[in-house]
Amino acid sequence: MTARPMSPNLALNQLVAERRALGDDILHLGFGESRLPAFDPLVEHLLAGARRNGYGAVQGDAAVREAVAGYFTRRRMPTGPDQVVVAPGSKPLLMALNLVLPGDVVIPRPAWNTYAPQAAIAGRHAVSVPIPAEAGGVPDPAALRATLHAERRAGRDPRTVILTLPDNPTGTLASPALIWEICAIAEQENLTVVSDEIYRDVVHDPTTPFLSPSEVIPHRTVVTSGLSKSLALGGWRIGVARFPGDEAGLALRDDVLSVASEVWSTLAGPMQQVAAYAFAEPPELRAHLAASARLHGAVARAVHEIFVAAGATCRPPTGAFYVYPDFEPLRPVLAAKGVTDSPSLARHLLDECDLVVLAGHLLGDDVHALRFKAATSMLYGDTPALQWQSLRAADPLALPHVARALARIGRGVERLVS
Amino acid sequence: MTARPMSPNLALNQLVAERRALGDDILHLGFGESRLPAFDPLVEHLLAGARRNGYGAVQGDAAVREAVAGYFTRRRMPTGPDQVVVAPGSKPLLMALNLVLPGDVVIPRPAWNTYAPQAAIAGRHAVSVPIPAEAGGVPDPAALRATLHAERRAGRDPRTVILTLPDNPTGTLASPALIWEICAIAEQENLTVVSDEIYRDVVHDPTTPFLSPSEVIPHRTVVTSGLSKSLALGGWRIGVARFPGDEAGLALRDDVLSVASEVWSTLAGPMQQVAAYAFAEPPELRAHLAASARLHGAVARAVHEIFVAAGATCRPPTGAFYVYPDFEPLRPVLAAKGVTDSPSLARHLLDECDLVVLAGHLLGDDVHALRFKAATSMLYGDTPALQWQSLRAADPLALPHVARALARIGRGVERLVS
């Protein structure tokens, strides 16, 4: 168990810091952080909870779990506080699920770069299934079925599938029809669904239909979420999980609580105060969430346009703050520059185009493909003042600092393909 | 992997809450929390860091690691910031060590109730070795050597030993002579030492000699610590680890960082601000730490006296805030009441004496023994005002609320043994 790699997005952060320290002027599109300031009422609640220095309940305080139950119930998932576990981020919850769920796990390809390493740390066999053309975050249904059968023939025991709704890295949202298909397979094939819905409140257009598998097959779906993305609170570490309310679901919850009690004890007290406020979603918070989602959408669409105009194919982004272009149509042009696969593409973008992206193979994608993830949430300005301006603008793309950042991407991509 | 138990001390908290909700007036000595208010400057630093909502470095920010390096260096462990990892508590760090260290692990008997479950979660074989008569927190040297050889003959591969200095649950501190012996064995037998020093700043008498194994065998010792105990910040979740500075030590650090990046990402930003202040140990903080240690010592010694006066044997407490009495001398008296082992003793104390303690078998001890852990840090008063009074009193035992709590223990123990 040596030479374990650092999570690649976090490793990339360090590379960027080093290059910048050397004087390089590079644009960082490799990290999935919503680069926005903390909303003032959230800070006020952190302050109000500052004196909560004693150990809190492992599961989360009653007030927090009540608020989280309301959050899910308002989203067509009737939830009692007993079905909720809060934690320092959704990562530890996903890890605990890996430690207690039986069998192997199916992961879409590409997917968030933490799913596969977590399975490996838990000693769990993972198998990846390509995403459909329509959207990421779910395995292609036909490929999923074929893989399940092939795995079983090979003596494997696939029992869990992870979905990401909306998706990181593709910035897309699987349609209700696709979710129905996946749920039908999960039901027939006896799979537990772990539905990572941390980007749920970052759907760009509020009229986009969202179907959670827990609406379809509630007895076999665990939903995880958190405040890191929608409220730009990655550095505060607040995550939640929703378990099925039946006996088996609550037994699974107890298994996760057992791991929680031995591995992280409790969400920090001041953060529980924040969570109780945020998951209750008072009007001012809803307005802030809506403004954030609008901004994420506008900038993601603009970046998407740049890549498509340069000749890449790319699913139009509808959620989260990512685009995932495919430069396959430009393979001959890139090959002439020595760019022939995912690592050389990302390296070339860094060295020659001053753009940092996360290479597709680091997300489990085919290393020979010419794909990468670009996080578009780093373009809102380098100071809280500029970020607030971006959030409040009717047309953020017209702001000079946003326009400049987009122009830099445009120049970098032009350099890549010309 | 079903029916995993909740960490027993945290489970006990819930039992106490339920019994109290039913109107029972019980004294909770079962939970290792320092029931003291947060020191004001710590709260101020939390507030100052409140706007740090972005993801911080996995390892911890440079300022925090610099402060922690100074903390260890002042304790005769020369440390560079590169040797330090900060995390949301020392529990996740200990878990990560379990996930990356090879081989089996040796745990003293009794020991803190999280070591064995963490090893089990990591799929690691654990073997327990009794503590010597002199002090807990370390295995008896002769028994350790015999166990290592027996394990190897049985095809096992013991490679790590966990020490607790000072010890939870016995409230004692292994002498330098004992540490030298254990370190010699670790060297001869090629063991990595994980030295849990979270109670280091809760040594009651500052002149008590403290020897860390990392002073003796620095290349094979990882030290963990945190602010939960010494500064009563269990609910803030701030932990640290110190790795050896050589190549192998930094490789182990990298393995832990890999797990960290996939499981918890980073210590929350506001908490990093707190840690940078606390580990720098300015004079006002040192005075607060010293006052806390004095209080913990005075009350632990008073509780020790009560148990010894009742006829139990008990190692005199010198660190942390626990006593670990053995009622073996009173076995005939207790047997007449149906108390014949560790579970029936704890149950009888709850049902008949209104005292909640943590039964010894839950700490890995012999289930037939008549031993338990009593946390003495819950006796300082139920309000911050009373707790401050306890902290500032020249003689906290003379304060009415402390004296009343001690008298209740006295009455409960009298009921047990009469």
> How many domains make up the 3D coordinates of chain A?
2
| Percent of residues in β-strands of chain A | 5-15%
Shape of chain A: globular
Q: Which strand order does the major sheet of chain A show?
A: 2-8-7-6-5-3-4
Total of helices of chain A: 15
Helix content of chain A: 40-55%
User: CATH top level of the largest domain in chain A?
Assistant: Alpha Beta
Number of DSSP strand runs of chain A:
12
Radius of gyration of chain A: 21 Å
Main β sheet profile of chain A: 7 strands, mixed
Rounded to the nearest angstrom, the distance between the terminal CA atoms of chain A is 44 Å
SSE succession of chain A: HEHHEHEHEHEHEHEEHHHEHHEEEHH
* Averaged pLDDT of chain A: 96
Assembly type = homodimer
CATH architecture of the largest domain in chain A: 3-Layer(aba) Sandwich
* CATH topology (fold) name of the largest domain in chain A: Aspartate Aminotransferase, domain 2
Sequence stretches where pLDDT stays below 50 over 5 or more residues of chain A: none
Helix/strand structural class of chain A: alpha/beta
CATH superfamily of the largest domain in chain A: Type I PLP-dependent aspartate aminotransferase-like (Major domain)
Q: Largest interface here, residues on each chain?
A: A-B, 66 and 67 residues
Protein name (chains A, B): Aminotransferase
InterPro entries (chains A, B): Aminotransferase_I/II_large, AspAT/PAT-like, NHTrfase_class1_PyrdxlP-BS, PyrdxlP-dep_Trfase, PyrdxlP-dep_Trfase_major, PyrdxlP-dep_Trfase_small
Cofactor (chains A, B): pyridoxal 5'-phosphate
Organism (chains A, B): Streptomyces triticirhizae
